Amino acid sequence: MKRLGFYLPIAIFAGVVIYLAVGLTLDPHKLPSTLIDKPAPEFDLPPIEGFEQGLSSQDLNGEVSLVNIWGSWCVSCIIEHPILMEIKKNNIVPIYGIDWKDPPGEGAAWLKKEGNPYTLIGDDADGRVAIDFGVTGAPETFIIDKEGRIRYKYIGPITPEVWNEIIFPVVEELRK
Amino acid sequence: MIAEIGHFALILGLVLALVQALVPWWGLRANNPLLVRLTERVAIAQFGFIFFSFLVLTYLFVVSDFSVAVVMQNSHTTKPLMYKIAGVWGNHEGSMLLWVLILALFGAFLARRGSKMRAGLRIRALGIQGMIGFAFILFLVFTSNPFARIFPAPLDGLGLNPLLQDPGLVFHPPFLYLGYVGLSTAFSLAAAGLLEGKIDRIWARHIRPWVLSAWCFLTFGIGLGSWWAYHELGWGGWWFWDPVENASFMPWLFATALFHSLRVVEKREALKSWTVLLAILAFSFSLIGTFLVRSGILTSVHAFAVDPTRGVFLLVLLTLAIGGALALFGYRAPKLKPLGSFSPVSRESGIMINNLFIISACLTVFLGTFYPLFVDALTGNKISVGAPYFNITFLPIMIPALVLLGAAIRLPWKKGSLKQVLYELRFALISALVIGALVAWFFWADSVVAIGGVVLAAWIAGGTLTDLAKRIRLKGSPIKDILSRAIRLPGAFLGMAIAHLGVAVIVLAITGVSFWRVETIGMMDIGDQLHAGNLTLRLDKAFLGSEENYDLLQGDFTILDGAEVAATVVVQKRYYPVRGMETTEAGIHSTFWGDYYVTMGPQAEDGKLAVHFFRNPLMPWMWFGAILLVIGGMVAMIGGHKPSSKAKESKAS
C-alpha cells in the first residue's frame, strides 16, 4: 500500500493530461462569458455608503436590465459614464451597479461627483460576487433577461458604437 | 541561402541530440570510457550547432531579410536595432529556438563542468538531457521552423508587437528561459539519480548549484517581467496573476522548495523521495508553462501562436517527459531509505513544513490557472479566475510560511527546543512588535493586515540578523574575531541571510504598495489639477508628436506635495501604425519612499484626458528585494562548498 503512494503523482498527472487534451480541442477565442443563458449567480449585496437599498439577485427578475461592474478606481468607467447617464435620463433600460472592490465611501463620493446612472447599487467590497460573475476587469456589463438569466456580456467601456450596435439591439431583442 | 544554412545547422543539432540521447546507455552497459567521452563531446557540439543556427536567425533579423516568414511577421525596417535583435525571441519560432539553445547550453555545461561529478550520474543525466533536446528540436523543425521562406518576399515587415518594444522585455525572455530551462538539469540529475539508485548527500551537493543558478535566473526573469508590466501596461500594478505569469511563478515556487529540502538531504540524508519529486516537478511545471504559452490553449499578452498541431505535439512531448520521470519515481523512490531521523522540532521539520506551505500555495495557483480550462473541458462554460481568487487563497497560505521562516533559521538540525529558539529570538520578536506599534501610531492604514505585514517583515529581518549575530558571536568578542568570523562565513549561510533579508524587503514593499497606496482618477484639461491626499497632480502640457516607428500623445505633469514641487513626469500614449496598436508609457518618478505613477486613458471626445494618478509607497523596494534574492542565490551557489567537503566527495566517488 505504501508503495502505491509513490505512484500517486503520476496518477494525478494522468488526470491533468486528459484535461489538457480536452482543453486543446476548445477555442479560447469564443465569447469568454461565464454563464451565458444561465441564471445570474445568487447574491445579496449591502448598499454603498449613504444609500438605503443594496442589490440582490432577486432585483434582476421581471424586466430586461443591465448589470454594470464598476469602481471609483477604474479609469475606463469614466469613459462609459456619460452613456450610462444618457440611458438613465431617457429611461431606456434599468442599470444595476455593482461597486467592485471600492474602499468604503469612495464609490458613493464618485457617484456624487459624476452623477448616478444606477437604479440600485450593491457594494461588492471584497469582490466575491464579481468572482461569481466571472469578471475579468472593470468595466464589464451583463445583459439580464426578464427571467433573471444572463444573456450577454460585454467587456470594456460602452462607447456610443457599442451601445448602438451591440447592447441596445440585444436589449430590444430580449424585450420581444 | 543563409537561412538554409541556419536550418541545416539546426537539423545537425537534432541528429546530435539523438546521439546524445542514445549513446550513454550503450556506454554504461559496455562500460566503455570512450563512449562516455563521446557523449560529452556530442553535447558540446550540439550546443555549437544550435548556437550557430541562432546567430543566423539573429543576422536575418538585423539585415531585415523579409523573405523569411518569421522576420517578415515580426520585424520592420524602421525598428531600432535593439528591437530587431529582440524580435528574434519576440515570436513563437524564435523563442522556441532560444529555448532549445538554452537547453543545449546547460547540456554543454553539464558535459564540461560536471567532470567532478561521479561519472554514472553525469552520463545518465546527459542522456536524459539529450532526450529532452531531441524532442524539442524535433518540435521546432517540424511544427515551427524559424527559417521557413515566403515567396515573393514583401518590401517591408509587419513589425514587433509594440507592447514588447521595451528594454525590460528585451531581456525578460532570455532570463526567464535560463531559469525555466535551467531546471532541466535538476530534472535530468533527479532522474539519473533514480536510475542509478543513489540519492544521497553527494547527489544533493551535485544538483544544488544547478538548481540555484536556475532559480537565480528565474527570479531575475520574473522580476524583469513584473517591472515591465509595471512600466509598460500602465495599470499601476506589478503582478496580475495572468496565466502566463503564473506559469513562471509555479516552477519558481517548486525550485524554492527544492533547494531548501536539498539542504536536508545534504546535511541529514532525509526527505530523499520528497526532494527528488520536487526536482522532477519543478521542471515539469516549466514544461507545462511552455505548453500553456505555446499551445494557444490560453490567450494573453504572451501567447504568440495558435496552431493545433503544435499544441498536440507539445502535449505528447510533455506527457512522455513528465510521465516517464514520474513512473520512474513511482518505481524507484520506495527503495530510497532515509538515513537521518529528526524530531518534530528541528531544522528539518521547519524546512519540511515550509515546503508543504509553499507547495500548497503553488497548488492554489495551479488550480486558479487551470480551473477555467477544466470547467471549459467539462461543461463548455468559459469562466475566468481573477486576482481576487489568488489573493484570498495564496496569501493566507504564504503568511504562516513566512512567520515560520523567521524562527526556523534558528532551529538546530536534528532536534531543537521551541523555547530555546524563542528565547534567542526575543529581541527580533520585541523589535518587530515595537516597529509595528510605531507604524500603527504614525501611519495607521485602516487595516490590521497592513500592520501585520510590517511586523512580519521586521520579524523575518530580525530573525535573519539575530542568526547572523549569533554566527559571528557579536556579543562579547573582540572586533577582530568578529570580523574574521564574518569573512569566513560559509557562502551557503551568507547567501541564505541575504536572500531572507530580500524576502523581508519584498514583504514590506508589498504591504506598502497594497495598503498605503493613494490614487485618484479624473478627466483633465491643460492646467487642471487632481488631488489625492496631500498630493496634487497638474497637467502642464499635452501635445501630439511622432517618433521613428510610432505616433504619440504626450502629457507633461507636475506633482506637488503640499505646495512644493515633488516631481515632474511625462506620460505617453503611443500609437504604432504598422500594427495598429496602442501602448502606454506610464510616467514614473521614483524616490526612496515610493513612486509617483501617472498613466493616461484614451482622450475623450471633448479633448480631455482620462488620468490615473497613484502614489505607490515603497515600490522601489520591491525591485531591490528581488535583487537581494538573486544576489543571495548567487552567493550561496558560488560559496556553497567548504574546502573540506571536496576531499570527502572525491573519496566517495
Low-confidence stretches of chain B: 300-306, 642-653
**Strands of the biggest beta sheet of chain A: in what spatial order?**
5-4-3-6-7
Question: What's the CATH class of chain A, please?
Answer: Alpha Beta
- Which secondary-structure class do the elements of chain B indicate? alpha+beta
Alpha carbon gap, first and last residue of chain A: 63 Å
Let me know the average pLDDT of chain A: 82
Helix residue percentage of chain B: 55-70%
In CATH, the architecture of chain A is: 3-Layer(aba) Sandwich
Number of strands of chain B: 9
Biggest sheet: strand arrangement of chain B? 2-3-4-5-6
Number of strands of chain A: 7
Helical content of chain A (DSSP H or I, runs of 4+) = 25-40%
Largest sheet of chain A: 5 strands, mixed
Biggest sheet record of chain B: 5 strands, antiparallel
Let me know the CATH homologous superfamily of chain A. Answer: Glutaredoxin
Q: What's the gyration radius of chain B in Å?
A: 26 Å
Shape of chain B: flat
Instruction: Please report which band the strand proportion of chain A falls in: under 5%, 5-15%, 15-25%, 25-35%, 35-45% or over 45%.
Output: 15-25%
Radius of gyration of chain A: 20 Å
Named CATH topology of chain A? Glutaredoxin
Distance between the first and last residues' Cα of chain B: 50 Å
Walk me through this protein's architecture.
The complex is a heterodimer of chains A (176) and B (653). With 176 residues, chain A is α/β, with parallel strands linked by helices. Chain A has one domain (34-175): Glutaredoxin. Chain A has six helices and seven strands. In chain A, the strands form two sheets. Chain A has a five-stranded mixed beta sheet. Mean pLDDT of chain A is 82; it is low at 27-34. With 653 residues, chain B is an alpha+beta fold. Among the domains of chain B are: 166-352 and 385-390; 518-617. Chain B has helices spanning 2-30, 33-62, 69-74, 81-86, 92-113, 119-143, 167-196, 201-233, 243-268, 272-294, 308-332, 347-379, 387-408, 418-424, 426-443, 448-471, 479-487, 491-515, 619-638, 643-652; strands spanning 518-524, 529-532, 535-546, 551-561, 564-576, 581-585, 587-591, 594-603, 609-617. The longest helix of chain B has 33 residues, at 201-233. Chains A and B meet through α2, α3 and α5 of A and α10, α11, α12, α13 and β1 of B.
